[in-house]
Amino acid sequence: MTNPPGSTPTGPSPSGAPLPRILVLNGPNLNLLGTREPALYGHDTLADAERLAVEAGARAGFAVECLQSNHEGVLIDRIQAARGTAGEADGGIAGIVLNAGGLTHTSVALRDALAAVAIPFVEVHVSNVHAREPFRHHSFLSAIASAVIVGAGIAGYGWAVELLARRTATAS
Ligand SMILES: O=C1C[C@@](O)(C(=O)O)C[C@@H](O)[C@@H]1O
């Protein structure tokens, strides 16, 4: 269900006004969800996770755009492109759900991009990273995240969208 950047799978609101958008970004190896180390990550696929996010967005009046990439720069480019778009005519990006995979534990550049755009984001991990190897206990992203959801399986994607939708509605 990975959509090209700019797509709005849930369409305009009944009034015809564009829906605000939530961007669901997945990093390296998350395209393998469902077949990758199922004892750790379960059998649900990335398409299943994205479907939960789209459905949660639709219930809350948000369009959801999904992108997965194994390349750090692609993720950073998409985050940068979202900067300052929140009020734009196409709805703009009001929030980001991010599972950065292994980049979570290594990428200062991804953190810098998120800090630069100042768009609220929820960090999601399918597995409980704190119950795993020590190198997964540190995240470069958590300190600047609105919230962190770990170990809830793919349910975390739907909850993250719901949380961003609520917080965005409260903030405006
Ligand atoms: O790729 C991943 C997946 C992950 O982000 C998760 O969703 O549990 C946890 C990371 O440590 C790992 O590198």
Outline of this structure?
The chain is an alpha/beta fold. 33% of the residues lie in helices and 16% in strands.
Q: Could you please describe the fold and organization of this structure?
A:
The N terminus is likely disordered. α4 links the parallel β3 and β4. The two termini are 30 Å apart. α3 packs parallel to α4. This protein has a single domain, classed as Rossmann fold, CATH 3.40.50. The protein has 172 residues and is of the alpha/beta class. The protein is globular, with a radius of gyration of 15 Å. Strands 2-1-3-4-5 form a five-stranded parallel sheet, covered by helices on one side. The protein contains five helices and five strands. It binds 1,3,4-trihydroxy-5-OXO-cyclohexanecarboxylic acid (DQA).
The count of helical stretches stands at: 5
Which term fits the overall shape? globular
For the termini, the CA-CA separation is 30 Å
Mean pLDDT: 91
Uncertain parts: 1-10
If classified by CATH, what would the architecture be? 3-Layer(aba) Sandwich
What is the fold named in CATH at topology level? Rossmann fold
Number of domains: 1
Question: Main sheet: which strands, in order across?
Answer: 2-1-3-4-5
Class, according to the CATH hierarchy? Alpha Beta
Hetero ligands: 1,3,4-trihydroxy-5-OXO-cyclohexanecarboxylic acid
Radius of gyration: 15 Å
- The helix/strand series, from N terminus to C terminus, equals EHHEHEHEEH
Derived from helix and strand composition plus strand pairing, the structural class reads alpha/beta
Count the strands?
A: 5
Residues in helices, as a percent range: 25-40%
Main β sheet profile = 5 strands, parallel
How much strand? Answer: 15-25%
CATH superfamily label: Dehydroquinase, class II
